[in-house]
Amino acid sequence: MPGEDEYWERVRERMEMGETEPEPEEKILSLDEELEDLEKEYGCKLEELGEPDLEEIVYRLRGEYPAEAKYEPDWIAIFYRFDAA
Q: Would you say residue 3 lies in a domain?
């Protein structure tokens, strides 16, 4: 997995310094089936939506409120990040 060594090095450094906050989780919400309905509902292509609208879509479909969300048209998916509790 690319970047795995760097990730574990950061974890080790944080633990040594007493920081134990978890890394934010990153997930992908595939919209293959929902794309057409969402574009009708919002009246535009998802590429044109702002981050708050994308966050709302993630919340409605996954029940998780992300800290960040970005639509990737090549993947037909929303890439989102949230802070793990």
A: no
Residue 11 located in a structural domain: no
Spatial distance between the Cα atoms of 49 and 21, rounded to a whole number of angstroms: 31
Q: Indicate the pTM of the whole model.
A: 0.71
Enumerate the β-bridge partners of residue 27. Answer: 80
Whole-angstrom distance, CA of residue 67 vs CA of residue 54 = 11
Match 């966050």 to its residue by tokens.
Answer: 55
Instruction: Let me know if residue 17 belongs to a domain.
Output: no
Residue 45 structural domain: 23-82
**b or e along 31-69 (b: 16 or more beta carbons within 10 Å of the residue's beta carbon)?**
beebbeebbeeeeeebeebeeebbbebbeeeeeeebeeb
**pLDDT tens by residue, 25-81:** 899 999 999 999 999 999 999 999 999 999 999 999 999 899 999 999 999 999 999
The total domain count for the chain is 1
